[in-house]
Amino acid sequence: MNADRKTALVAGTFFIVAFVASVPGPFALYRAVLHDPWFIVTPPGDVRVAAGALLEAIVAIAVIGTAVTLFPVVRRQSEGIALGTCLLGPNLALGPNTLMPAYLMYRSRLVPRPIAILGLVGGPLLFAFATAVLFGVFRQVSVWGAIGALPVFAWEMSLAVWLVFKGFTPSAAAALRHRGPVVATSPPS
Fold it and tell me: What is the pTM of this model?
């Protein structure tokens, strides 16, 4: 197994771990915190909240693992975009943080273009939906919230499955390897 194939396998696995660990928290483990107005005055020690916090830590580690694992490969397309960071929090930042790697995957052809297009469509759509939630247009956990998240879910899972089972497109990975990293430079003064 070559280095690019190992990288794809590890990155795909991190995507899957992040998804699996992110689902139980908001939908099951945090229900008491979110819906019981008396929760804050009840005795401490709710195992569901502790389990949710542990899963949040696992999600954070998996997301960091995904970024760190993919960086050496996608920086060959654009180091600046590959370094894009979360500044707005998980909901608003998920849109741009989907858009940037999707753009890199689309431009580099490391994965089939339809997979990258899911991220290119899903990122801005999720950002728009998260902005609507921020301004109270609808609730985050709602039919509209699910519709807004569906393309990003499809992007992440199709990318993860492709990376785990197929890896990067060999010709695209080879082309990027020969090209080296693309680093933005300042124009001459």
Answer: 0.75
